[in-house]
């Protein structure tokens, strides 16, 4: 009873700290309260009892801070408790350092959280050679890229899609809610663009569609994350079943086509956590890797199975001159892989193995495609891993021809540069982050097919499709014989910033704080080079940014460039506020035709 009272009292102190109304006050007060509670618990209960109470303590912090609902906090803490206690025991010298882990504003966290490490790049980088564009008419290959499937076996049609939990479109956790609560947004049959994952039949329907409409697919890459986002109920049995089910489903719907998987952060147990072999054996992921080795045996060479069973990585020679490397970078660099905070340096030799594969390919004169999950320079990677990966891409830029990743759920690309601190230096590589199968994060389910230089002597095996699809003018510039000396497209009539912004928007990046002048300049580039895919998006951006200050510039642009859709939006706006706009300085300078159309419409 005394023990219970002590814990309740101390948690009450913590609750006072974490309910402070002002953020900076919350930060300092919560940190102070956390330190008091942890040190008193440790002193009162002793180290063994304290370790046993860590899970309850973290669950209380999670719930009291409103990070998640109580049932989610308890589930997550239950999954993480053994991992957390092990890592803390390795890291924490003084109990108060626990607060440095739980609350980012607290000082005094373990020094090992900020480890950096560098690994020597093998061999000598060959002299740079400008890449040569593939000749027109040469054979091509088609590559299907699936990512972030997140299949939810508990998806329930008609259930609440706006449930306020981390994952919706599932049976309510309290059965009575099905009868007492109205459904705001019912879960649809084929998935729901909300905080919902993919029902199994969405995946099978997508695969059936691919089989019917893309009969020329040569091979498949799957860049990880097979499990749903319900990470508080993850289990070995569930992960094993998901790997078996999805690999066999792909074989069923796309028979005879080789598929190459990478490990995603949601394959971890707990989520994001892949224990390197310096940890006790009870934490090891051998059961997952063994399942993958068994299920992927038809696709992965026998001489790579030891590697799969050890760290989930493998290399496959796809065609003469082309290799594929599947890299488990969640093991190597995931910033939420707690085991890495014990020792971040080259976990299980994964980076060393990766560099050897690249060096072997370079020595053989082969090109390499990389499939992995978290983009290599993404801010969710630990700095040490990210820096070494970046160095590897620069060192082997002539060898690496594709980097196929996922994780973001939206289609993005990332460019690596010869000088990482200078985006105007020479580009050395591109990471393609594929959109997701799951609608989670408010995206429609989709897949990507890349057309690459095909199988013939001297093939570059480079992706050759996106710019040609984006613009017929780009396609002409690439395929025209006068441009065959380089894969570059020379744009000398617009600034670097304008072209870069247009490319970012084309690839789905959300661009914030763009002024109307910048948008207009990008629009001029888009119009000149016939990039139709983003014209409506730019028109909407101009319209949503309209103000008395820029009305003249936007309206002039719309009429001068005959943007009918934008003109109609401006006319509709003018109808609502004719007096306000006619009183804007410069309104009469729009010209008689524009002025007449606006006035007549109102």
From TrEMBL:
Keywords: Disulfide bond, Glycoprotein, Glycosidase, Hydrolase, Signal. It catalyses: a sphingomyelin + H2O = phosphocholine + an N-acylsphing-4-enine + H(+). SUPFAM superfamilies: Metallo-dependent phosphatases, POZ domain, Saposin. Coiled coil: none annotated. GO terms for cellular component: extracellular space; lysosome; membrane. GO terms for biological process: ceramide biosynthetic process; sphingomyelin catabolic process. The keyword Amino-acid biosynthesis does not apply. Residues 446-507 form the BTB domain. Belongs to the acid sphingomyelinase family. This is Sphingomyelin phosphodiesterase. It comes from Panagrellus redivivus (Microworm). The lineage of its organism: Eukaryota, Metazoa, Ecdysozoa, Nematoda, Chromadorea.
């Amino acid at each position: 009873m005394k023990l219970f009272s002590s814990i309740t009292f101390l948690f009450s102190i913590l609750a006072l700290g974490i309910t402070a109304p002002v953020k900076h006050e919350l930060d300092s007060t919560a940190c102070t309260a956390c330190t008091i509670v942890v040190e008193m618990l440790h002193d009162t209960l002793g180290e063994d009892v304290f370790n046993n109470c860590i899970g309850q303590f973290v669950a209380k912090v999670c719930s009291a801070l409103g990070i998640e609902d109580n049932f989610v906090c308890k589930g997550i803490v239950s999954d993480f408790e053994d991992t957390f206690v092990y890592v803390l025991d390795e890291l924490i010298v003084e109990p108060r350092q626990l607060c440095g882990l739980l609350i980012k504003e607290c000082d005094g966290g373990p020094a090992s959280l900020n480890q950096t490490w560098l690994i020597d790049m093998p061999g000598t980088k060959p002299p740079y050679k400008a890449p040569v564009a593939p000749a027109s008419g040469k054979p091509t290959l088609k590559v299907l890229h699936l990512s972030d499937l997140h299949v939810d076996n508990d998806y329930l049609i008609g259930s609440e899609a706006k449930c306020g939990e981390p994952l919706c479109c599932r049976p309510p956790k309290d059965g009575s809610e099905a009868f007492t609560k109205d459904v705001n947004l019912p879960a649809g049959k084929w998935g729901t663009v909300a905080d919902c994952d993919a029902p199994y039949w969405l995946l099978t329907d997508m695969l059936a569609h691919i089989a019917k409409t893309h009969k020329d697919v040569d091979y498949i890459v799957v860049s990880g994350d097979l499990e749903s986002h319900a990470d508080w109920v993850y289990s070995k049995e569930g992960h094993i079943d998901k790997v078996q089910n999805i690999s066999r489903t792909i074989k069923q719907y796309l028979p005879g086509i080789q598929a190459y998987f990478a490990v995603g952060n949601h394959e971890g147990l707990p989520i994001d956590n892949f224990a390197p072999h310096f940890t006790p054996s009870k934490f090891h992921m051998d059961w997952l890797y063994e399942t993958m080795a068994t299920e992927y045996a038809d696709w992965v060479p026998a001489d790579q199975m030891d590697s799969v069973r050890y760290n989930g990585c493998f290399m496959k020679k796809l065609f003469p001159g082309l290799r594929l490397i599947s890299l488990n970078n969640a093991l190597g660099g995931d910033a939420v892989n707690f085991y890495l905070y014990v020792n971040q340096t080259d976990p299980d030799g994964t980076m060393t193995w990766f560099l050897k594969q690249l060096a072997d390919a370079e020595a053989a004169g082969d090109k390499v495609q990389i499939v992995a999950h978290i983009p290599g320079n993404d801010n969710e990677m630990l700095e040490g891993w990210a820096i070494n990966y970046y160095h590897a891409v620069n060192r082997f830029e002539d060898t690496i021809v594709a980097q196929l990743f996922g994780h973001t759920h939206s289609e993005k690309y990332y460019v690596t540069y010869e000088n990482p601190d200078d985006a105007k230096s020479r580009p050395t590589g591109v990471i393609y982050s594929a959109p997701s199968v799951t609608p989670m994060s408010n995206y429609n389910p989709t897949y990507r097919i890349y057309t690459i230089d095909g199988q013939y002597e001297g093939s570059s095996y480079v992706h050759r499709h996106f710019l040609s699809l984006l613009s017929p003018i780009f396609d002409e510039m690439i395929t025209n014989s006068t441009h065959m000396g380089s894969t570059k497209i020379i744009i000398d009539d617009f600034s670097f910033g304008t072209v870069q912004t247009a490319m970012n928007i084309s690839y789905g990046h959300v661009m914030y704080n763009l002024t109307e002048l910048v948008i207009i300049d990008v629009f001029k580039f888009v119009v000149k080079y016939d990039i139709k895919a983003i014209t409506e998006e730019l028109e909407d951006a101009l319209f949503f940014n309209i103000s008395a200050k820029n009305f003249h510039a936007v309206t002039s642009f719309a009429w001068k460039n005959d943007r009918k859709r934008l003109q109609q939006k401006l006319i509709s706006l003018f109808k609502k506020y004719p007096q306000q706009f006619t009183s804007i300085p410069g309104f009469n300078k729009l010209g008689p035709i524009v002025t007449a159309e606006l006035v007549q419409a109102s």
